[in-house]
Design a protein that fits this description.
The chain is an alpha/beta fold. It folds into two domains: 68 residues, Chemotaxis Receptor Methyltransferase Cher, domain 1 (Orthogonal Bundle), CATH 1.10.155; 194 residues, 3-Layer(aba) Sandwich (Rossmann fold), CATH 3.40.50. Helix content is 44%, strand content 18%. The protein has ten helices and ten strands. It has a seven-stranded mixed β-sheet with strand order 6-2-1-7-8-10-9. Helix 6 links the parallel strand 1 and strand 2. The protein is globular, with a radius of gyration of 20 Å. Bound molecules: S-adenosylmethionine. S-adenosylmethionine (SAM) binds next to loops.
Length: 275
């Protein structure tokens, strides 16, 4: 049960987080916010939102741990392998054939870069298989709100376990052991060259460089309330080139006006195409 005082203290806490760290929780589902705040409050040994606000003022390092908990940056190379298999057999070959030297993709909510680099690997590998003489030279915009994740993405070095879902042949071809960091692999320059990272908030910032041939927006929207989801879907649908492809996470579904613009192509893998 929550009291009115509890609501007011929550609002004050959220305002404080926004003022100090520029992170607005307005678009997030309240149930999810409360759940994740409760995890951090338990870890800090405080029981009310007001106590937690005070704790944050006295221990500013806690803001980092809280933002980690709120933004949930779990990811993996080749996450949800079936989706990537689907992209490998249809979407990627089509993209390389049609737009090989000028494709534009966007990984929105890219976390520490695994999704964007996976896409870069598939595009490069398709160019290799088809012997595209000029190779490929497009760009993948990879954006996230979380600066810490973006820093990790820019480093391009990952523990071996991050590759568990990725076919071994791809890992071996596009990543190499890092002699200074045993147990880690680093990306090759050819992969790195295709990806451009930037900070971006999908709830407030416009799409960075439309029109896009492909937008990956996976496992991000689930945290937002319905009106925010519908607004972002519409904005992203409009940011696609004609025939462009939109991919959501496995448990996410498009709603709102974007449904008039995007046609469902694969329900299981949440692949849509702009009409
Ligand atoms: C679970 S990860 C998804 C990573 C990747 N797309 C995947 O599916 O593996 C969710 C990411 O969304 C980011 N995120 C959350 N809210 C955001 C916002 N308002 N704008 C941009 N990114 C956001 C988080 O920082 C986190 O890195």
């Amino acid at each position: 049960m929550k009291s009115l005082g509890d609501d007011k203290a929550l609002q004050e806490l959220l305002q404080q987080i926004n003022a100090v760290r520029g992170f607005s929780c307005d678009a997030y589902k309240e149930s999810g916010l409360r759940r994740r705040l409760a995890v951090r409050m338990r870890a800090c040994g405080v029981h009310t939102f007001a106590q937690y606000a005070q704790h944050l003022r006295e221990n500013t390092a806690e803001y980092d741990r809280l933002l980690d908990a709120l933004t949930i940056n779990v990811t993996q190379f080749y996450r949800n392998a079936d989706t990537w298999d689907r992209l490998t057999t249809t979407v990627v070959p089509d993209l390389v054939a049609r737009r090989g030297s000028a494709f534009r993709c966007w990984s929105a909510g890219c976390a520490s870069g695994e999704e964007a680099y996976t896409l870069a690997v598939l595009l490069l590998d398709e160019a290799r298989k088809t012997g595209a003489t000029n190779g490929i030279a497009g760009c993948i915009d990879a954006t996230d709100f979380d600066v810490k994740s973006l820093k990790k993405a820019g480093e391009g070095r990952y523990p071996e376990e991050a590759f568990d879902a990725m076919p071994n042949s791809l890992t071996a071809r596009y990543f190499h052991p890092d002699s200074e960091h045993p147990g880690s692999l680093s990306i090759s320059d050819s992969v790195r060259r295709l990806v451009r990272f930037a900070q971006h908030d999908v709830t407030t910032d416009p799409p960075p460089n439309p029109p896009y041939d492909l937008i990956l927006f996976r496992n991000v929207v689930i945290y937002f309330d319905r009106p925010t989801q519908e607004r972002i879907f519409l904005e992203m649908a409009n940011a696609l080139a004609s025939g462009g492809v939109f991919v959501l996470g496995k448990v996410e579904t498009i709603s709102g006006a974007a449904r008039d613009i995007l046609q469902l192509e694969d329900i299981r893998e949440r692949v849509y195409r702009r009409r």
